Prior knowledge:
- The chain is α/β, with parallel strands linked by helices.
- It has ten helices and 13 strands.
- The strands form three sheets. Strands 1, 2, 3, 6, 7, 8, 11, 12 and 13 form a nine-stranded mixed sheet that branches.
- A hairpin with a 5-residue loop joins strand 9 and strand 10.
- The chain starts with 6 loop residues before the first helix and ends in a 27-residue tail after the last helix.
Amino acid sequence: MSAAATPADVLGGRASYALHHGECLAWMDTLPDASVDAVVCDPPYAEIDRDYGRMTEADWEVFAHALVRKSLRVLKPRGSAVFIVQPNSEHIGRMRAWVFRFLAWCSDDIVRETNGRIGMVQDAWWWNTTAPPTAHCQRVRGLMRPSVKPCAWVGPDDCYRDQDAVLWTESARNAERRAEGTASRYKVPSGQSWDTAKATSAALERGGVTPFNLIPIANANSSDSAGASGHGAGTPYDLAAWWVRYICPKGGVVADPCGGTFTMGLAAVRQGRRFLGCEKMASHFAAGVERMASCDMDALSPVRVEAPQWGDLFAAVGS
């Protein structure tokens, strides 16, 4: 259960994880077909200066398309992949288009390439609730605070997902309605309505409410974040854990070809999954090896996104 373990050890159940130092696309070519339950990764972004370099929009699209295609090859028939990306701008007031082209490609071109077998499962978005204002947000420039990242979820229509594993804590108002014993119908501006008694009782029975496709999770913390290990663009642990629980069954295998300091690996192994990870930056790989060395000692992780602080915004609609 170390960086010295091989993918064969992990796939055969003889190790919890295997880590590879090298280039991700070449590494993925070494993995067997239909061997992985889920691919979840936060790849490099276009036109961003990082210690691992900078890619133009055109170069990024070549890389990203190859990454998706290679991910689909290694997925099991009901496996799926999530690619977390972030829009950016050419200059203040003018967005770049690479993210939006990528989402359209996942929704359209992939469907054609796979003869309708694979496509965008659902649009999903991570909301960084602690995003700080940027230079673009200064009063004189007047733009909004960027805080949402698309999570491009690609797979077959019937891909594995366990909604019960990612239920949210119900809102305080929802619990109040149940305590009141009201059986009224609640209407929204669109004219739709639902039985509040039925919805609140379902929330109690299931242990939470159906999650929205906008996932509100703070960017990082001081101990379990990639930033705490020297990675300036890592995925928050709670977000990694949320996707692992949702799309990979217990005992399954999660792969992250753009591993960074292996936050995805921590989330996978701590929750009873196995992990295959790759990272090309030597400093990040070394930090990730150190982080992973004790992760299989920790069986605890957040169970669900905590939502009571949002009040009725995240009530138990359609629980």
